[in-house]
Design brief:
Blueprint lengths: L1 E3 L1 H14 L2 H14 E4 L2 H14 L3 H14 L7 H11 L3 H14 L4 H13 L3 H21 L15 H23 L5 H11 L1
Parallel strand pairs: 1-2
Length: 203
């Protein structure tokens, strides 16, 4: 069994950015996922592996490991179903991808990063309305948490991490930027969300 930390994963991905060998990184991460014990969860390692498979252009492999992450059920960043939906879109399995996104929507996630990921996936697929709606909903989640003074849970029922609200605030800028791009593409007028983005950029 192998003890793997977030720093270990970051180092591996940094090396991959230098070498450009995403396939080797994906294989290494897949191997680590099979033996990880302690440190980061197996699901997190699988998600990282899936991302590297996608960077390598192997969306079949990516979908396979994303499904493993979902089945694992361990702690993960965001929602593994959003990453699987991305891979399925790339494979032309649009109905399956849409079904996953609908499942996520029905679950009403409280993590703004889930909204950002889905919005980015839809934007990449040319669904400007979907991207706009998900980015708006994600921004609303952050604003509601800010007003309530509540942090975003790492997992359901856990509201103890003092850093989570700061992470949510970081998500807000990304969500508003994405929403702005989708709004421009849709030809919709400026609104209060754009003013909020301006304020964030001036801060």
């Amino acid at each position: 069994m192998t003890h793997v930390t977030e720093d270990d994963l970051d180092d591996l991905e940094f090396d991959t950015l230098r070498t450009g060998d995403h396939t080797s990184a994906a294989r290494r991460l897949s191997e680590l996922a099979a033996s990880v014990s302690g440190g980061v969860s197996r699901a997190k390692v699988l998600l990282r592996a899936g991302e590297q498979w996608q960077h390598a252009g192997d969306h079949d492999k990516a979908a396979e490991v994303y499904r493993q992450a979902i089945e694992d059920g361990g702690e993960a960043y965001g929602d593994p179903r959003a990453y699987l939906a991305d891979a399925l879109f790339e494979l032309g399995e649009r109905d399956q991808a849409r079904a996953l996104i609908e499942q996520i929507h029905k679950d009403r996630p409280t993590d703004p990063e889930v909204y950002r990921t889905v919005a980015e996936v839809l934007y990449a697929q040319g669904d400007m309305t979907g991207a706009y709606d998900w980015a708006t909903a994600g921004a609303d989640v952050v604003l509601a948490l800010r007003e309530q003074g509540v942090t975003v849970p790492d997992d359901p029922g856990d509201l103890d991490d003092a850093d989570d609200l700061a992470i949510a605030e970081d998500s807000l800028e990304a969500l508003l930027r994405l929403r702005y791009r989708a709004r421009i593409d849709l030809g919709r007028p400026e609104d209060d969300y754009d003013a909020m983005l301006d304020d964030l950029l001036k801060a």
